[in-house]
Design a protein that fits this description.
The protein is globular and about 60 Å long. About 50% of the residues are buried. Helix content is about 40%, strand content about 15%. It is built from 16 helices and 14 strands. The strands form two sheets. An eight-stranded mixed β-sheet has the order 13-12-11-7-10-9-8-14. It has two domains: about 170 residues, NAD(P)-binding Rossmann-like Domain (Rossmann fold), CATH 3.40.50; about 220 residues, Dihydrodipicolinate Reductase, domain 2 (2-Layer Sandwich). Helix 6 links the parallel strand 4 and strand 5. The two termini are about 25 Å apart. The protein has about 450 residues and is an alpha/beta fold.
C-alpha cells in the first residue's frame, strides 16, 4: 500500500487503546529516545486547544519529533483529557503545562498567556474558525484542524484578523502531505502533465460507528451529519486538487454545483446498533449518503469532490489529475503522452512508482523513513506538524495559509446553498481580493 493511500493502523490503534491514554504513553516511551539530547536554545512555545484523540495525537507528534517545541498549556472541556495530555508532556519533557478546563471559553485565557507563541486547535469543527480568530486577536500564531471555518463570515474574519495582527495561520490539512500527492505536485510544477485542467478528490470514509458513542449518545461527527448537509468535510478531497491547479496562485474557484442523495445508511446503522426505539434511531440526519460537488475556476478548469461518511465501502480517498499531456488516477496509475507517443494505439496505465526516483518530493525522499516511523496516517501528520512548527520558528507564511483555509472551507457553505437551490450554480467568494491573478504574490511563503 502506498504512503498516499496510507496505513491507518497506527492512529486507529492509538484511538482505541485504553481510552487512548495507554497507547499514547507507549508511543511516547517507544520514540522519545530519538529526541535530541540537548534542546535547542530557542524553544517554540505551543498551546493546544482540544486534547481529545486527535489533539493528543498532535501532542505526541510534537513531543516525539519536535525537540524545539515546549507545550506550555493545554485546554479541553473534559478534565480527564487535560490531565492525560499534561501527563504526557510531564513524562516526556519534565515540565507540566498549564491546564484550562473551566468552561467553553476558557481557551481564551490560554491564548492570552505570555508563554504561548502559537496555538494548535483540534476541537470539533464548529469551534475551529472562532478559536482561530480569538487566537489571532490575542497576538498568537494559529493552526486549526479540518474542516475549519464553517461560514463565509468566519472566513473573512480570519483573514482580517490575520492581516491586522501580523500573525500566521496554517490549516492542518495533512492529506496534502502524502507521498504521491506531493510527487504529483512536483511533476505539475515541472510541466510533466502539460496544462492541468481537471482534478478529482474524495473523502469517502465509513464512519457510521463514530456517529454515536457506545452508549448511543451522538458525537460531534453525528451532529455534523444531523445538522449540516452538503460537502461539510471537504479539505481532504480538495486540498491536493487546489494545489495542483494553482488555486490562489494564478487561478481561483469561481462557482460550485452540488448534488446529494437522500440519507439512508446512518439511520439504518443506528437502528441496528441501538434498536428501533432508541434515542439514536430517532435522529433525523440531513446529510445524504453521497455528496458530489463540481467546481469551476476562472481559467475554465474543473474540480470534482466526492464526500461520504456513511457509505458501505472500505475507506476510499481517491484522486485524479488530468492535463494536456497526461493523467494520473490513484486507482489506475499514470499515463503520459511523452512516453506513449501521440499516435500510440497500444497504451496502458503505468505504475506511478516508475517515476518515483525522478520526481519524488524531497520531503519524502529525505525524511520519508522518519515520517513513517513517527506514524500518523502513514507519515503525513509528521510533515504537516513539521511545517506548522517551521512556520512559527521562521515566522513565515505556510504552504497552506489563511487564504487557502478560507477558500477550501468555502465549499462548505457554498455547497449547502447550491442544494438549497436544487443544485443550482453558486458563486464562490474571492478571499484574495484579486491577488490570485499574480502567481507570485505569495512567493515569500514557505516552499515545499
Amino acid at each position: 500500500m502506498s504512503n498516499q493511500v496510507h496505513s491507518r493502523a497506527t492512529r486507529r490503534q492509538f484511538l482505541q487503546a485504553g481510552a487512548v491514554g495507554g497507547a499514547a504513553i507507549a508511543m511516547l516511551g517507544a520514540t522519545s529516545a530519538t529526541a535530541s539530547p540537548q534542546p535547542p536554545e530557542r524553544q517554540i512555545r505551543i498551546g493546544v486547544i482540544g486534547v481529545g484523540p486527535r489533539g493528543r495525537w498532535h501532542v505526541v507528534n510534537m513531543l516525539n519529533n519536535c525537540p524545539d517545541v515546549t507545550i506550555t498549556a493545554v485546554c479541553d472541556l473534559q478534565e480527564d483529557r487535560v490531565k492525560m495530555a499534561a501527563d504526557m508532556v510531564k513524562q516526556t519533557r519534565g515540565t507540566e503545562p498549564a491546564s484550562y478546563c473551566s468552561g467553553e471559553f476558557d481557551y481564551r485565557n490560554l491564548c492570552e498567556r505570555d508563554d504561548v507563541d502559537g496555538v494548535l486547535i483540534a476541537t470539533p469543527v464548529y469551534w475551529l474558525g472562532r478559536m482561530t480568530v480569538d487566537a489571532l486577536k490575542a497576538g498568537k500564531h494559529a493552526s486549526h484542524e479540518v474542516a475549519g471555518a464553517q461560514t463565509e463570515e468566519e472566513c473573512w474574519e480570519m483573514i482580517e484578523q490575520k492581516e491586522k495582527s501580523g500573525k500566521r495561520v496554517m490549516l492542518l490539512e495533512n492529506c496534502c502531505y502524502g507521498d504521491e500527492v506531493m510527487m504529483i505536485y512536483r511533476m505539475v510544477r515541472q510541466g510533466v502533465f502539460g496544462e492541468p485542467y481537471y482534478a478529482e478528490g474524495s473523502y469517502v470514509h465509513n464512519c457510521r460507528t463514530l456517529l454515536f458513542d457506545p452508549q448511543g449518545k451522538i458525537t460531534w461527527r453525528g451532529e455534523l451529519w444531523r445538522d449540516s448537509y452538503g460537502s461539510a468535510y471537504p479539505q481532504h478531497g480538495m486540498g491536493a486538487n487546489c494545489k495542483w491547479l494553482e488555486i490562489n496562485d494564478g487561478d481561483r474557484m469561481v462557482s460550485c454545483q452540488t448534488m446529494m442523495t437522500s440519507p439512508r445508511e446512518a439511520h439504518r446503522r443506528a437502528v441496528a446498533q441501538f434498536g428501533p426505539d432508541s434515542e439514536a434511531a430517532q435522529v433525523d440526519f440531513k446529510t445524504g449518503d453521497f455528496v458530489t460537488s463540481l467546481i469551476s475556476t476562472a481559467k475554465g478548469r474543473m474540480i470534482r469532490i466526492d464526500y461520504s461518511l456513511t457509505c458501505t465501502r472500505p475507506y476510499s480517498r481517491y484522486y485524479l489529475l488530468q492535463g494536456t499531456q497526461g493523467c494520473w488516477d490513484s486507482r489506475s496509475g499514470i499515463f503520459l503522452d511523452d512516453h506513449a507517443g501521440l499516435n500510440a494505439t497500444d497504451t496502458s496505465w503505468e505504475p506511478l512508482e516508475k517515476y518515483q526516483q525522478q520526481y519524488q518530493h524531497p520531503y519524502w525522499r529525505n525524511d520519508g523513513a522518519e515520517a513513517v516511523r513517527a506514524g500518523g496516517h502513514g507519515g503525513i501528520d509528521y510533515h504537516c506538524i513539521q511545517d506548522f512548527v517551521k512556520m512559527i520558528r521562521e515566522d513565515r507564511e505556510p504552504w497552506i495559509d489563511v487564504f487557502d483555509a478560507a477558500a477550501w472551507s468555502s465549499i462548505i457553505f457554498c455547497s449547502k446553498l447550491s442544494l438549497d437551490r436544487q443544485g443550482a450554480r453558486v458563486e464562490m467568494p474571492d478571499f484574495t481580493r484579486g491577488k490570485w491573478q499574480d502567481p507570485d504574490w505569495r512567493k515569500d511563503r514557505m516552499v515545499v
